[in-house]
Amino acid sequence: MTEQQKDTRENKAWSGRFTEPVSDLVKRYTASVSFDQRLALHDIRRSLAHARMLARQNIIGTQDLADIERGMAQVEAEISRGEFAWHLDDEDVHLNIEKRLTALVGDAGKRLHTGRSRNDQVATDIRLWLRDAVDHIDGLLRDYIVVLLTLAEQQAATPMPGFTHLQVAQPITFGHHLLAYVEMAQRDRERLRDCRKRINRLPLGAAALAGTTFPIDREFV
Known about the structure:
mainly alpha, 221 residues, 9 helices
């Protein structure tokens, strides 16, 4: 095996363990980058938090951290401008970003992987994405409630029939009717807040299975 072939294998993920080239069909089947690239900005945020912790714990040097922050700023800019080149061979969003970072800043990009694995990266990125999605939906519900309350106040004296079991029951006002939807939306917000508590856990630090021997600080992250 030539040095070039060896370097190519080492730069692959699991597929680097095989001597034969991987078929395009298998690449497309096993790669997730076509859809998990939506996690890119969360992946960068997580990596920066991890890098700052590594530097704080003296696991990497301050120059490494500066290089990582500089490189990640460029990667984020490329992604935001739609100029980032996503590669199927790199399988997922994490490896694509890590390889681009390493191309930009050298060995500092490789040291970013210290004390973590693709497993805890995936789990953390998904939780960050879900947390932001919950916050976005909660904001939409809040705006919806404000509109309902404004309209309910305007229609506070507008009469309408109230129904029960598809039959006309008590007379109510349209404003009163709208407030029922306010209560429904408030309960939805409560459910989202409860869901957010369960999402807001940090898997980073579990590494491949049961932690790492590096003296990481999960509380800081």
